[in-house]
């Protein structure tokens, strides 16, 4: 995968990690633009290649009454507006084969959710659009098995594949990041570490996923030190009232300090190569 082939991506000549960040779900235009404006400002200052992330719909919910979205086309148009307003690429996840061509009209990267990364029809539909494909490693999969997911993208004559590690299921209610998998998966494609979903605590009795956002910095710093190519994080200016995954999101007020520290670590690691 070549980072500079992603439309509108900036700062690719700075040897920095790249960042996929934004809210879990698109809740409305104002919130998306507010989050994007803040993150774009910080990433431009720190010369971090940035992609705005937002789910146009949430299909993998614990309860039937959970928030799923504001409408597919409405949310996708907001993602397009973010891209046009701030001149940045965008990414969204898809859940069904028919989502691929629809979402590809609005965003630059299609993301395959961790629970669905073994679904061949979905991966092929996404790869066939020609967009960059972000493959989230299944919580139930080994790093070595992601080679086959990447190969499905390559077999569609699409070389733009990314692997994102979002932790491995440990018991029923916890996720563990096995940093040994990073160099393994880097043999197949650039590797991103999802530092917010890796701290989820799923399968809560309430039906609402929990999380440990106080450890986001710890996981992110370890990931940069271990050599990841990029980071994925969900952020919001009011996580407590976010409509999805608020329990493990990074508050927007903390993002500049964290990214500054991570850039400093990255510079040290890069100089040692």
Automatic annotation (TrEMBL):
Residues 8-268 form the DAHP synthetase I/KDSA domain. Coiled coil: none annotated. It catalyses: D-arabinose 5-phosphate + phosphoenolpyruvate + H2O = 3-deoxy-alpha-D-manno-2-octulosonate-8-phosphate + phosphate. It is an enzyme of class 2 (transferase). GO terms for molecular function: 3-deoxy-8-phosphooctulonate synthase activity. It is found in: Cytoplasm. Its EC number is 2.5.1.55. Pathway: Carbohydrate biosynthesis; 3-deoxy-D-manno-octulosonate biosynthesis; 3-deoxy-D-manno-octulosonate from D-ribulose 5-phosphate: step 2/3; Bacterial outer membrane biogenesis; lipopolysaccharide biosynthesis. Keywords: Cytoplasm, Transferase. InterPro entries: Aldolase_TIM, DAHP1/KDSA, KDO8P_synthase. Gene3D superfamilies: Aldolase class I. Pfam families: DAHP_synth_1 (PF00793). Belongs to the KdsA family. This is 3-deoxy-8-phosphooctulonate synthase. It comes from Galbibacter pacificus.
């Amino acid at each position: 995968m070549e980072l500079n082939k992603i439309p509108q991506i900036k700062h690719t000549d700075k040897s920095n990690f790249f960042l996929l960040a934004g809210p879990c779900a698109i809740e409305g235009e104002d919130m998306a633009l507010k989050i994007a404006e803040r993150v774009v400002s910080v990433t431009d200052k720190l010369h971090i290649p940035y992609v705005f992330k937002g789910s146009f719909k949430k299909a993998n919910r614990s309860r039937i009454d959970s928030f799923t979205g504001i409408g597919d086309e409405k949310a996708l148009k907001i993602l397009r507006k973010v891209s046009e307003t701030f001149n940045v690429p965008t990414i969204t996840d898809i859940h069904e084969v028919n989502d691929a061509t629809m979402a590809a009209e609005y965003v630059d990267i299609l993301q395959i959710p961790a629970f669905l990364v073994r679904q061949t029809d979905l991966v092929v539909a996404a790869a066939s659009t020609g967009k960059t494909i972000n493959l989230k490693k299944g919580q139930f999969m080994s790093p070595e098995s992601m080679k086959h997911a990447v190969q499905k993208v390559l077999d569609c004559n699409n070389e733009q594949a990314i692997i994102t590690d979002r932790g491995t299921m440990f018991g029923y209610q916890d996720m563990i990041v096995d940093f040994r998998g990073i160099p393994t998966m880097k043999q197949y494609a650039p590797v991103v570490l999802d530092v917010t979903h890796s701290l989820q605590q799923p399968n809560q009795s309430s039906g609402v996923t929990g999380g440990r956002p106080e450890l986001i910095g710890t996981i992110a710093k370890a990931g940069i030190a271990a050599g990841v190519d990029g980071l994925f994080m969900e952020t919001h200016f009011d996580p407590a009232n976010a409509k999805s995954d608020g329990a493990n999101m990074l508050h927007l007020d903390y993002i500049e300090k964290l990214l500054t520290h991570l850039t400093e670590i990255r510079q040290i690691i890069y100089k040692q190569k």
